[in-house]
Design brief:
four-stranded antiparallel sheet; Jelly Rolls; single chain; about 20% strand; six-stranded antiparallel sheet; about 300 residues; alpha+beta
């Protein structure tokens, strides 16, 4: 595991151990991992009965991964509800929650570092970024953002940190805009990047195609916040930073495949893909053919 995975796995493991002290939950039924300095995620499976979610001093959200019924005491008093798959919760800050489940349940827990919301506060000139508690609700956009993170975790974060950083920034921005207690104090910056700044950012991407590149590094190069960088880059190029990097990685793979002595595994790693299967999946989506078919077309 990378340093970042080690760093955030520790905090999630401590959280898992606290949950595991409850008779209804076994630590072996909790899987946790992270690939972002601002976001951690774990999946939990619980049997019927009582289980406890510990107090966490970070913004925490939950996404139901199954249908189940449960009772609990929340901010609005005692509640007993049937919870559907895809339901979302913005949990109370630093407060333990005890649930009595009438069915087995599966859900994902997300820990969003406070710094992610602070970035939104500075950009939007908000006085505070405290989120309103919402115990159970439906929000299609929030569901999609959280579901993307779950699928990334299950796939081993093959899309890389730049993609997850972008999703995390979009998640924080959406939460602040729609579920923050503070009002907006001013308009956000608009427009694309100056050509010289855009060129420097692309040069940084090109230099790091075969390795991990963080959104914060690109934003720092441009002198912008992460969310402003995402908007400006897309306005300038028509692509998100992640889409742009994938396009350049496919172009590099095409060039490397001209040398038939280089294996597809070597091509994948040299182009910044996790493995040959990752290369094949992305290459086919962008080039409309497999790497093998492309290599044959060169003969």
């Amino acid at each position: 595991m990378s340093f970042l995975v080690h760093q955030y796995f520790g905090s999630l493991r401590r959280m898992s151990e606290r949950i595991g002290l409850q008779p209804a939950i076994s630590p072996s039924r909790i899987s946790a991992s992270s690939h972002s300095p601002l976001l951690s995620v774990m999946e939990v499976s619980t049997p019927k009965g009582q289980w406890t979610v510990p107090a966490v001093q970070e913004v925490s959200l939950a996404l139901s991964l199954s249908n189940f019924s449960a009772s609990w005491r929340g901010v609005q008093g005692f509640r007993s509800e049937a919870i559907s798959e895809g339901a979302v919760a913005i949990c109370e800050f630093d407060r333990e929650r005890v649930f009595e489940a009438r069915d087995a349940a599966k859900f994902a827990v997300f820990l969003l570092r406070n710094e992610a919301l602070e970035q939104m506060r500075h950009e939007g000139r908000r006085v505070r970024t405290e989120l309103q508690v919402h115990e159970i609700f439906q929000d299609a956009t929030l569901h999609r953002l959280l579901d993307v993170v779950v699928h990334e975790r299950r796939g081993g974060f093959q899309s890389g940190p730049l993609f997850l950083d972008s999703v995390t920034t979009a998640l924080a921005s959406y939460l602040v805009r729609h579920y923050s207690t503070a009002s907006f104090m001013g308009g956000s910056s608009r427009g694309g990047m100056a050509p010289a700044i855009l060129r420097r950012c692309i040069e940084l991407m090109e230099a790091r195609l075969d390795g991990d590149l963080r959104l914060s590094e690109l934003a720092r190069e441009a002198g912008l916040s992460t969310s402003h960088f995402l908007r400006s880059f897309r306005q300038s190029t028509g692509k998100t930073p992640h889409q742009f990097v994938l396009q350049r990685r496919v172009e590099r793979a095409r060039a490397l495949m001209r040398d038939h002595r280089v294996s597809l595994t070597e091509v994948a790693l040299a182009s910044g893909f996790a493995d040959q299967h990752h290369l094949a999946r992305v290459f086919r989506r962008i080039a409309n053919m497999t790497p093998t078919d492309y290599r044959r077309s060169l003969q």
